[in-house]
Amino acid sequence: MTPAPRLDRSGIAARLMVAMALVLVSAALAAWMAAGAVGPGLFHRHMAQAENSPGTAVEHAESAFASASAVTLAVALSAALLTALVATIVLARRIGTSLGSLSAAAGQVAAGRFDIRLAQPHIGAEFDELAIAFNAMSARLDQDEGRRRRLMADVAHELRTPVATIAAYIDALEDGVQDLNAQTVDVLRAQTSRLTRLATDLAAVTQAESGALRLDEQPVAPGALVEAALSAARGRADTAGLVLVGEVAPDVPVLWVDRDRIGQVLGNLLDNAIRHTRPGGQVSIRVQRRSPYVRFTVTDTGEGIAPEHLPHVFERFYRVDTARDRAHGGSGIGLAITKALVQAHGGTIVAHSSGPGRGAQFVIDLPHG
Ligand SMILES: Nc1ncnc2c1ncn2[C@@H]1O[C@H](COP(=O)(O)OP(=O)(O)OP(=O)(O)O)[C@@H](O)[C@H]1O
Ligand SMILES: [Mg+2]
Q: Which long-range contacts (CB under 8 A, 24 or more apart) does 85-90 make?
């Protein structure tokens, strides 16, 4: 993690205040110095003139005072003007430079350069905050663009294999190299259903992640959800030689959820657990009350997940063992859909595993009441 940028705490108002104070101080200093330098000489000259000229001493004193004041005022005003000019140029140049680089950077971001970052101008907290907000915006855009590219690449990659297989079979059939027998039809059907599933999964994950998902929420007993998920998975568990266990604590409250969506969530988790556990192993769902949540824990005694893969398993298209998981028919979208569906219900899901060979555990907390 990058350290939080240091914020310049003094704002632009403080800086303007300092500039004004500088103008005042320089005017006062100049007035004081001018009065000290010019005043005594002027008075002295007028007093000397008063001795041998008509006019009263008072008149001479008044005119000496007027001249000294005029000179002092002129010097003070010039000093104030000069300081104001310098302060304005310095401030305007720094603000202008920083706004210039901001609009140049905004232009580059608009043109698709999301790696652009602004340096903090250090001319006031407001400007530093603006630079930090701008950098956060372009970093987010950068991240989204990266995700979009990866998604496109992944989709293209997923499409390539089944489409290439279908095309090769069609060529072979056309050339008479291959007969249109049951085995050929099976291969073609498997590849098309893989494409159909990919399309359905992509639509589901996009819809769930965009928040556009409509949930048909109704009161459901957690026991009924577990029962339905277990009976749907029982056939596959038997074929895989696994023991399937369900356990619902007696005090769990009724949930207000979309029955089909939560069914899909549990189905995905059971499907993964069954696929990644060797014959003789066990797959279980446990439900407990953890107010204000109801906790569903899907545990298996299978191959487990290495710590470096754990944080990524919920990403779209992420597969720990790409080649093998694809051979199982998985495209790595199941857990992304699962997470989006759980979050759409206001819940959370986390994956745990003590490492390869030590089983995996997925814990879902859904809010009740
Ligand atoms: N119970 C589990 N035990 C071990 N690894 C698991 C388990 N569940 C998921 N994984 C790993 O996480 C990856 C992502 O799972 P996910 O369900 O998203 O994709 P998939 O099962 O490969 O494909 P899909 O669900 O789209 O058919 C899997 O490929 C697998 O490597
Ligand atoms: Mg899966």
A: 87/19, 87/22, 87/23, 88/19
Ligand positioned closest to the Cα atom of 277: 1
CA–CA separation, 338 vs 267, rounded Å? 9
Tell me the pLDDT band of 2, cut-offs 50, 70 and 90.
very low
Q: Is the pLDDT of residue 369 over 80?
A: no
**Three-class secondary structure of residue 102 per DSSP:** helix
Please report whether residue 149 resides in a domain.
Answer: no
| Domain limit, last residue, from 171, 194, 210 | 210
CA 60–ligand 1 middle distance (angstroms): 103
> How many angstroms does the Cα of residue 300 sit away from the middle of ligand 1?
13
Closest ligand, as measured to the CA of 331? 1
Q: Is residue 2 part of a domain?
A: no
- Residue-wise pLDDT for 195-234, tens only, equals 998 898 888 888 887 777 888 999 999 999 999 999 999 9
Q: Is the CB of 325 under 6 A from ligand 1?
A: yes
202 and 221 assigned to the same domain: no
Q: Per residue in 34-76, pLDDT tens?
A: 888 888 888 888 788 877 776 677 888 888 888 888 999 999 9
302 lines ligand 1 (CB under 6 A): yes
Domain that holds residue 131: 12-139
Q: What domain count does the chain have?
A: 3
